[in-house]
């Protein structure tokens, strides 16, 4: 495959051909819809967690976003975190030294994220930026816990300990304050897939849905107190809290109560992920996903807030499965979706492939473009 090196100028040319203008106004919500300048705005696109973490050049960032934009996408979800305990040569955003955190505002830190924002803007894409991770990839909650409470402490202390909360707020304030007036950023997310348990599996035994709902309420209110321009969401998987259900993702055992969280006034929209095989729903993963989408669309209507299926994936029968899921998103009225995950062929090679990755010129990539057009048409 021929590798492309796309400049910011050619990104602007792509925008012009698609009739898209760079962001000058903030995305808002109205009932179950997102809006822009008072008109419906369709949020649809992909995840690219890696774009600000791999030490990419600005041209490579621009190519990655251009590949997504060619589907007609409007939004990309990406990581706004990387906690390290020693400096690294690629991008990192917070350095921890003996319990003290320093936000990296230099060229390998927030200066690098400035380039991410500029490349997204050049390609007419809005960013959903996630501010920490439940998992150990790129640092996450356990770094806070280990540094401030003690190595191997329960993961869920992140949600309740005064020191971890103060440190998280400090990071959030520094990061968010830099971009308060930047409309290319559509939304902040509190965390990627918060749960009572993290990568270590160590918990206090007292964490439950009330714990994480209280944390989400406190932290979303804190972000709103700093930044009234941007939307806020949790970034959770959308697990329901129905203990009598025979299905694991509905039982509330991970500490997430989707409906309770939809009721938090300082959260602007709901999020759900969909990985039926990873969740043990192997008998009919496609059918499980159809029901999952429909159930979240029901909650969306009940709470009159937008809901995004902001991560979803299977590693086999992708075309058949995604065709049914896309059809269900359209028919159910679910607000929008972001596939996991986008891929590109850069001059340095292919971007990360975890088995879910969709590269340009594939069947699913073409399906994405058709779905984007259909979702935009539905939302007019």
Write up this protein:
There is one protein chain. This protein is α/β, with parallel strands linked by helices. It has a single domain, classed as Glycosidases (TIM Barrel, Alpha-Beta Barrel). The chain is 35% helix and 16% strand. It has ten helices and 16 strands. It has helices at residues 8-18, 58-69, 110-122, 141-148, 162-178, 209-226, 258-262, 285-303, 318-332, 363-378, and strands spanning 27-30, 33-36, 39-41, 44-47, 75-79, 83-84, 94-97, 100-103, 126-130, 185-189, 231-233, 270-274, 307-312, 336-339, 345-346, 349-350. The chain has an eight-stranded parallel sheet. A three-stranded antiparallel sheet has the order 1-2-3, with no helix packed on it. α2 runs parallel beside α3 (110-122). The model is unreliable at 1-20 (pLDDT under 50). It is an enzyme of class 3 (hydrolase). It holds the Pfam family Cellulase.
Named at the architecture level, the CATH assignment is Alpha-Beta Barrel
CATH topology: TIM Barrel
Helix/strand class: alpha/beta
Q: In terms of per-residue confidence, which ranges show pLDDT below 50 for 5 or more consecutive residues?
A: 1-20
Q: Which superfamily, in CATH terms, is the homologous superfamily?
A: Glycosidases
Gap between N and C termini: 37 Å
Family: Belongs to the glycosyl hydrolase 5 (cellulase A) family.
Organism: Gloeophyllum trabeum (strain ATCC 11539 / FP-39264 / Madison 617)
Subcellular location: Secreted
Catalytic activity: Random hydrolysis of (1->4)-beta-D-mannosidic linkages in mannans, galactomannans and glucomannans
């Amino acid at each position: 495959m021929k590798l492309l090196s796309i400049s910011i100028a050619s990104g602007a040319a792509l925008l012009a051909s698609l009739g898209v203008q760079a962001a000058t106004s903030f995305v808002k919500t109205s009932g179950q819809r997102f809006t822009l300048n008072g008109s419906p705005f369709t949020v649809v696109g992909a995840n690219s967690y890696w774009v600000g973490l791999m030490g990419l050049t600005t041209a490579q960032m621009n190519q990655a976003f251009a590949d997504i934009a060619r589907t007609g996408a409007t939004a990309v979800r990406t990581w706004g975190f990387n906690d390290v305990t020693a400096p690294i040569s690629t991008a990192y955003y917070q350095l921890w030294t003996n319990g003290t955190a320093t936000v990296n505002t230099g060229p390998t830190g927030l200066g690098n994220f400035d380039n991410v924002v500029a490349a997204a803007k050049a390609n007419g894409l809005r960013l959903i930026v996630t501010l920490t991770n439940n998992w150990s990839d790129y640092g996450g909650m356990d770094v806070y816990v280990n540094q401030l409470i003690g190595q191997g402490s329960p993961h869920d202390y992140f949600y309740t300990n005064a020191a971890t909360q103060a440190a998280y707020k400090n990071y959030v304030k520094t990061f968010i304050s830099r971009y308060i007036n930047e409309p290319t950023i559509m939304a902040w997310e509190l965390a990627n897939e918060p749960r009572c348990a993290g990568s270590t599996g160590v918990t206090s035994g007292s964490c439950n849905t009330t714990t994480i709902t209280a944390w989400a309420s406190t932290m979303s209110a804190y972000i709103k107190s700093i930044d009234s321009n941007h939307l806020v969401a949790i970034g959770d998987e959308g697990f329901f809290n129905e203990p009598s259900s025979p299905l694991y993702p509905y039982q509330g055992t991970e500490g997430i109560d989707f409906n309770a969280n939809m009721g938090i006034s300082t959260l602007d929209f709901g999020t759900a992920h969909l990985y039926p095989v990873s969740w043990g729903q192997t008998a009919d993963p496609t059918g499980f996903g159809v029901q999952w989408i429909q159930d979240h669309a029901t909650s969306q209507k009940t709470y009159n807030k937008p809901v995004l299926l902001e991560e979803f994936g299977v590693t086999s029968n992708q075309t058949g499965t995604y065709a049914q899921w896309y059809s269900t998103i359209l028919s159910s009225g679910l607000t929008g979706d972001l596939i996991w995950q986008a891929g590109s062929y850069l001059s340095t090679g292919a971007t990360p492939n975890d088995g879910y990755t969709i590269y340009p010129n594939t069947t699913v990539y073409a399906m994405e473009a058709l779905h984007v057009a259909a979702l935009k048409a539905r939302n007019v």
